[in-house]
Amino acid sequence: MICQYSEQLYWHIRALVGSHEDTDDILQEVFVKVWKALPGFRGDSSVKTWLWRIATNEALSFLRKQQVRAALRFESLDTTAALMVDSDPWFDGDAAQRVLAKAIAALPPKQRSVFCMRYFEELPYEEISRITGTSVGALKASYHQAAEKVKVMVAEDD
Questions:
Q1: In order of start, what are the domains of the chain with their CATH numbers?
Q2: Whole-angstrom distance, CA of residue 14 vs CA of residue 45
Q3: What is the dihedral of CA 4, 5, 7, 8, to 10 degrees?
Q4: Which of 21, 43, 7 is closest to 121 using CA atoms?
Q5: DSSP 19
Q6: What is the pLDDT of residue 31?
């Protein structure tokens, strides 16, 4: 049941954290948490929504830790994220995709998660709301702000 979502989960997490190695580590943590929590799953939401919530929370937790580490090194996480896109050996996109990936990597973590779930995964706001525990109105505002930031960053790169 859970294995059928592993590739989708991988790409969901990868869109949030950017790094193949970090994504693999986080995905492993997600499956450990799911395995431990499976007996308590009540079915209040779909399995997919439950998995996405766990994966999103794990990815955001990882990103918060990265922000703290970057601050302790007096670095900007945005700069670090952009460098990760440039140095990622697994990235196989063209120049335009690289610019888009850098712009998305520069978004704050919560905006990045909303943007990726809506833009790439095409999830409806209602499902994103169940995953994140955020109101639909707040999600729409967050997505709009993220999309505007991405537009500006992509335009600046041209």
A1: 3-157 (1.20.140.160)
A2: 24
A3: 140
A4: 7
A5: -
A6: 94
What's the longest Cα–Cα distance across the chain? Answer: 51
pLDDT digits (tens, 9 = 90+) for 38-65: 999 888 889 999 999 999 999 999 988 8
Work out the mean pLDDT of the chain and round it to a whole number.
86
Report the C-alpha gap between 15 and 1 in whole angstroms.
Answer: 23
- How many whole angstroms separate alpha carbon 58 and alpha carbon 69? 17
Q: Over the stretch 105-115, which tens digit does the pLDDT of each residue have?
A: 889 989 999 99
Kindly report the number of other CB atoms within 10 A of residue 87's CB atom: 9
- For 84-134, the three-class secondary structure string (H helix, E strand, C coil) is HHHHCCCCCCCHHHHHHHHHHHCCCHHHHHHHHHHHCCCCCHHHHHHHHCC
Does the predicted TM-score (pTM) go above 0.85?
Answer: no
